[in-house]
Amino acid sequence: MKKSILALIAIWVLSGPSPSEAQKVYRIGALVADGQFVPAFEGFKRKMVEIGYTEGKNIKYDLYNAEGNRDTLEKLAKKLVQDKPDLIVTSSTTATAPVAKASAGTNIPVVFLSAGNPLRFVKSYSSSGNNLTGISTSAIDITEKRIELLKELALGIKRVIALHNPKGENYEANLKATREAARKLGLELVEVNVQSGEELIQRAKDLLNRKLGDGIFYPPDAVLNTAVKDITPQVNRERLPSIAPNIGNVKDGALATYAADYFALGQQGAVLVDKILRGARPMDLPVEQPFKLNLVINLETARAIGLKIPREILLRADEVIE
Which of 68, 97, 181, 183 falls 20 to 30 Å from 32 in CA-CA distance? Predict the structure, then answer.
């Protein structure tokens, strides 16, 4: 009996994790394009705790925020890859593209917690064909639904000021989707090209006014949308209804959005990260769509521009900002 017990203990010791494995601390590098994407990282960390990863015990995070600066993004992406973490997480197509480029040919897994245009750097939704996987925000895919929302909120709208960033990662895909949606909905587009948030702020009076259009459509562009909060006073003075690509922009003053919640996307992405840390390859994990899309309306902005939101739309809203 005693020999049997000793044998079982020996088997358990030999089959269990080695001391080095038990003390493994995963290093996760993280890059966001701007503060509006930080909630995705916060949701990611929250879910990682639920899964069993405790910061300082078996996982360590290094978060970098480029604050909407494209040159900074490039530098931080290179630094992250040079640091050789166990995995890198990003948020936004803008932040993911330079990381995808810098990590090409390495064995560093990259998981994007949000990307409006994943096909910018993966082969397909079913298999990336490289070291990347992640969660799509569906921002490009639901362009028509967001423009339709603008038309529903602002009855009689005819001309839409559509902002574009020719240097943006989503430029071509967004341009195509916006034009196609406007054609289907019978709206005229007034296309305005701006290359940075700073430029948009400086030119706001000339670009965002009733002479040009009846409403504004903000693109899924991390660089341009850093300016939403600063240009809101001008937009409100001109009584222009605006549709944004994410919830953070609505909290900053845009009228409404139909979009995924970044915090929830981060939680969704944590499940993919856990699978990879356990041995899965990114290319074997399909790019996922968001579990839920949210209709969010800013009533304060609606009052500022003298727009009455129909009761049926308010009842449909997932969140109403007072």
Answer: 181
